Amino acid sequence: MIAPTKAAPPASGHLDYYVRHGISPVRYRTGGLGAHFERREALYRLLGLPPVAFKGARVLEVAAGSGQNSLYVAACLPARFDLVEPNPAGLHDIEAAYAGLEVGHTKPVLHPVMIQDFETDAPFDIVLCENWLGSLAHERAIIARLAGLVAPGGVLVMTAVPLAGFFPNIVRKLLALRLIAADEDFDKATARLLKAFSPHLETIDGMTRSHRDWIHDCMLNPHYLHVALPIATLLEAAGDNMDVLGTSPRFATDWRWFKGMAGAGRAFNDHLLASELAELHNFMDCRKVLAPRRPDDNLPLAEVLDDGYAAALAWQDAWDRNDDTALKASAASVSDCLGRLACLFDTIDAQTALSLVEVGALWDRDAFEPEDVASLARFGGLFGRETVYVSMGKRRAYG
Fold first, then answer.
1. What is 161-218 written as a DSSP string?
2. CA geometry: angle at 364 spanning 362 and 365, to 5°?
3. Helix H or strand E encompassing 158
4. pTM to 2 decimals?
5. What integer pLDDT is reported at residue 27 of this predicted model?
6. Rounded-to-integer distance, Cα 62 and Cα 5, Å
7. Are β-strands 242-248 and 388-394 bridged in parallel, bridged antiparallel, or unpaired?
8. Sheet holding 109-111, edge to edge
9. How far is the C-alpha of 133 from the C-alpha of 143, rounded, in Å?
């Protein structure tokens, strides 16, 4: 039996927040079951998992949320399908989703526990975990546990959150905190932030989540900044015996001959990380794809993004503690990073540079209102490629 892990404290920050407010802000408008299944099939196809990969397999999904994504997997007829979800609101949504599912499917086994308390008698062929874990120490331990639940030759699918793609929403999170009081009523804070950010969200083509749920899950979630999970951190936490299989979006082209991909020549993960650095600037704005750059040319960009994230975490910590001195110091660091990032993008993409200059000017003001955030004409449409799906195969021993 693969026993529950006791090596790490519960990753309960998001869960505590959801339970406290009785929410599960991960539901979305599917546009009909056919369109939903086509989207999920397209995703898994990019990750190297066609429908036949799920058929007859043992599958585990962790942090299943509303259960909507699991419907596609269930319809692929796995031999066994386990769902782990401790949020009572999420459990209700999962039961409702399956109650209305009329296509043939494998009925999942629902486990209303945290992954730390989940037990199984055998590893799984496929383990899925989307949009949950970040890079805090106890979360990296959970990533290692998820990898441990994968059978040799099996696949782990997770989501990374690279800083370049996350950065526009890091800035939005800080703006949101400046618009509300720490003790503000939840519903009033929601309404205030909807006024500020709904015009931004309306620029996103194909958005399926409600603006209210996005506000709840991102802008009001006190743990939101900690969802950052660089791809390198994900791969390190998953362990040396996990090799990248695919990503969505795809940004790495591998021209190597397969006959050289043995022993030290495998290097699937190293190849992906080098490609990521060459494309780092393309994660900042989901509306465009720019030409790749030399990896070394993007190193200064990576450095500023690291500094900007550290400054954002420091600013929220000072806001949480109501420490005016620390707030001023970290606010200056945020401003400095916005300026440095704008200068770097001035030679990469002028539109992005101007967006950063615009929001930097707002940030430097002593105070602003939701209407000021809503009227950011350039920054309002800047959303990064925040979520990157990564599939990893567990190595099998040969000979």
1. B-HHHHHHHHHHHHHHHHHS-TT--HHHHHHHHHHHHHHHHTTSTT--S-HHHHIIII
2. 70
3. strand 150-160
4. 0.93
5. 74
6. 15
7. antiparallel
8. 109-111, 80-84, 58-62, 124-129, 150-160, 388-394, 242-248
9. 8
